[in-house]
Predict the structure.
Amino acid sequence: MLSKRWRLFLIAAFVCGLLLRLLWPADMEWKEDEYYNYIVPHLIATGARSWPWTGMNSGVYIANPGMSIWTFTVAAKIAQFFGATGPIGLTLVVRLIALLGCALVLPLSLIASGRASGRASNRQSGAREPWLWAFAFSMVNPFLIYYHRKLWPQTFLPLFCCLTLLGWYRRERKAGAFFWGLIGALIGQVHMAGFFSAAALVLGALAFERRKTRWRFWFLGSCLGALPLLPWLSYLIAHPTGQPLSAGYSELYQFKFWVFWVTDALGLHLGNPLGLLLGGSIYTQISHFARYPIIGGYATWICGIAHLIALVSGLAILGRAGILALKKSHTGLQADLAEKSTFWGFGALLTFTMVNIRRYYLAAAFPFEALWLARLSLGGYSRKQGRTLLLALWFAQLVISASFVGYIHAHEGSTEGDFGESYRVQQKRHLHDFGESWPDLKLLSPNH
């Protein structure tokens, strides 16, 4: 049984995560991707269009599998059932699904920590605490808040990642292995980065725990989950892109995956959506944002201080971990096979493709970035010191995320960054110019 302090902290974290995701839903990003991810599922849900086998084109110029749209279609049908209409209704359902996926870290923590400790009676031991921190960070991490407030397939990845892991940690059982194979085959169809994260878990189990897996049932589940891929593969063969998928050999030595891994875990930084057009430096991109909140016309720089606290806390955790690694000292909190497979396997597989790795690809690594950081902090310091560092980092990320939500609301988006104008201001302008709600579904044919 968790202590009262832990229960209160986890409840508070959940409330923060709920508010950060659901507050001001009309302030969502609204560009081509979001428009497509609303219109097409809406047409399918209303019977104006058949279910497609492919989604919109990905960042590597090939069409996504149909599952990337089917998830939104299911969400659209749920929204219809509860009477929630339009893009706002859809985005609220999608955000709640993202929150549900993050919440699955809690039951997952029982299974994973029980497996790590070796005895069910030890599930409340130190092996579980990093998972609890991973849940807490998933509620306030600035990148997750940014992704989950978008109409993007990545919003569904926490749910599919946790479901995959629920099967993976019970892969010695027939049902667990089958479920792992089934969801592991589906996650890449939601977002193609999931193919690589799922493959990393398979390779890890094959290399180090081959005899603990009921492979026959995993194979059956994988075959079933892969069936929707067949029409997609047929489409790709019939419609080659003609574009090179590789970005060049430079991707091999930039180590983008691990750079993003570390900065994702620390919550640093949101310069791309907020200040990409201001310049290439980090300071330039977040210089306006760091001054927030503005009170009485004066900059408080509270957000900037939160960035500094996150940076210092992260350096303290990573510095200590580096020193212990050089001394070859071992702590009682060792990474389990799933975390190692994701950190090394997912990273290596993605890097060796030489595609231009984008930060949001690591959404398929959920929840291991936060779990990794929590384990380093708790294992590198005394329990009290490790918790103090993590709590400071948690509060810093809470401030950054709350500032982000407030900044977007106050500015109606961010025209200085990749975010652009929010849905709210575009809707308001369209209503003023044309006197009707927007988007106008009549402008789109069912075959669009």
Remarks:
- The longest strand covers residues 54-57.
